[in-house]
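Each record in this resource describes a single protein on a pair of labelled lines. The shape at a given residue is found from the number at the same position. The record below illustrates this layout:

***
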Amino acid sequence: MVRRLLATAAFFAGLSCGENSGPGSLIAHGSSLAAQLDTLDAALGSPQLKSLGSLALPLLSVGVTFSTMDSTMLGRTLEWDPIWRRLDFTTRAGAPSNAIRLMLYKNDATGVPVVPKEEVGYAYLVPMNLHTGGKPDSVSLRIAVFNNATPTAGSVAEIMAWRRPSDVSCGQCASFSASAGPVSIGNRTIYLDVPFQIPVDGDGQYSATSSGGGFNFNHTATLPGPSSTAATANLGFRFGSDSIVATSGPLHPNSGRLIGPLNVTINGAPFATVTRAANGTTATRPGGQGIGGTDLRVLEGLFAVPADIAYYIEWPMFVVFYCGC
């Protein structure tokens, strides 16, 4: 099922794009913009969220969806089996009675947990309804992600989805919200708020806002479904008096991240074509000239941020909650 995510706002409205950030730079205030995009990437692409994204399909493979979470699963821990390369429920203690505890791991170069396993945190998967803390006439799923800091684990992200199961006319009418970053980026938090609708036999329709850390941005994305095996992830924002838009082509997972092409325009004019491959990211101007330095760092951030949201936050919630509804 394909889904779209849309967020609106302005980004760095006080900066002027008429000033370059350094010798040879074509993007105004490129160093500042690159630093902000790096901050977003650190929050939305933390090791814990990368692990959550990579374990989405293994969760589905062992039958963990919102509709199957019952007393036989709650209060138990899921751990990665490196021999069979799958998740298994174990006798490990520590899971709350109302949740599944999913252990999270550092990924290797292929996007699966390293061998030997190296834990980076855990996530609580908490199904809720009216009688267990959910909203009236709704079902909800909360995913709370933590690192493994001692003596107290730090909150990395909070993801919540809810929908009204009785509203059949719209298929799946739901809302999705997320926050990420407190322990990843020095107590700054990035927020996503996404009401959406999936009509009966139709595609997902999303309309959202994103804010935090002193800026907002537009984001659209689609995920693989019956009609597509690829994802897309786009980003747009105002930068001073300029409009910067990054529009991806088909994206596919590779080594724990999305790779593929991205086109960047400034004020509607083509600025660069970006290609993220397994071995790195390259970018060229419309005339074929290569791009490096600060400008390339900005373009890498324009690719990373929407891809992070799509793969590490939206994808696991889509698999466990939307597919499980």
User: Anything to note?
Assistant: Residues 47 and 106 are 6 Å apart (CA to CA). The longest strand covers residues 119-129. Residues 1-22 have pLDDT under 50 and may be disordered.
